[in-house]
Amino acid sequence: MTAIADKGAAIIIGAGDATGGAVAAAFARDGLVAVPVRRTAAGLEPLAQRIASEGGHCLPIGGDARDEDQMIALFDRVEREIGPVEVLVFNIGANSPMGIMDETVRRYRKIWEMCALAGFITAREAARRMAPRGRGTIIFTGATASLRGSAGFAGFSGGKFALRSLAQAMARELGPKGIHVAHSIIDGAIDTEFIRSNFPERYALKEDAGILDPEAIAAEYVRLHHQPRSAWTHELDLRPWLERW
C-alpha cells in the first residue's frame, strides 16, 4: 500500500453493490483512495476489481461499524497506510419493516445500532482526524424515513431520525473547524437488484429516469466534497423526477 500513500482516502461505510459501491468508485476516479467497508471484505472484491479497471486505487476492508475498537483500528490503518482521511461517507441502510406490535427489542436495538450508533462511531473517528487539519467532508446517507415515520417502519425511522439529528449537531460543531458535514435524503427507489426482483413495475420506470441512479447519487456526493466554503450544503434532497412527495 506504500505506493499510494499520501494520496488521501475516502472511507465509505456500507459499501454495498449499489449506492455505496458507486460512491467508492466515484471518489476513486476523483483521485482519492477508496476504502469501501462492509461486514465481510470478500463481498467487496468485485468493487475493488472495478475500481482497479478504471485506474483507481482501493483498499477494501471488512468490519462491523458498530464495533468501536474495530473502527478506531480501521481509521488508524487508513491514515498509516494511505494518508489523511479526506472523506467519510456513512451509507448503512438498515431498512427492515416490521409492524409495531410484532417488533422486538432485539430488532429495534440492532436497527438503531446500524443507523445511529455506527454513524456516531465512524463520524467521531473521522472528526478526530480531520479537525486538527482543518478540512474534511463527512456525508450521511439518509432516507424518506429521516423526515417522517411510516406505518411498519418504527425502527428504521427512529434510527434515521437519530442519524439526521447527529448530522445537524456535528455540522454546527465542526463547520467552524473547517469540516463539511452533510446529510443526504434519498427519497425514492434506487436502481438495485432488490428493486428489480421485488418491484418490477417500479423498476420499469428506470427507462424514463424514474428511479434513482446510484452513479448520479455518487456524482452529487463528490460535488458536495468540492463545494467552496462560502456555499456549503448541509441537507441534500435527491429523488427521481417522477417521485411523489
In short:
The chain has 245 residues and is an alpha/beta fold. Helices cover 42% and strands 15% of the residues. The longest helix has 26 residues, at 105-130.
Report on this structure:
- This protein has 245 residues and is α/β, with parallel strands linked by helices.
- The protein has one domain: Rossmann fold.
- The chain is 42% helix and 15% strand.
- The chain has a 7-stranded parallel β-sheet, sandwiched between helices.
Please describe the topology of this protein:
Elements: E1 9-13, H1 19-29, E2 33-38, H2 45-53, E3 61-62, H3 68-81, E4 85-90, H4 105-130, E5 137-143, H5 154-174, E6 180-186, H6 193-198, H7 200-203, H8 214-225, E7 235-238
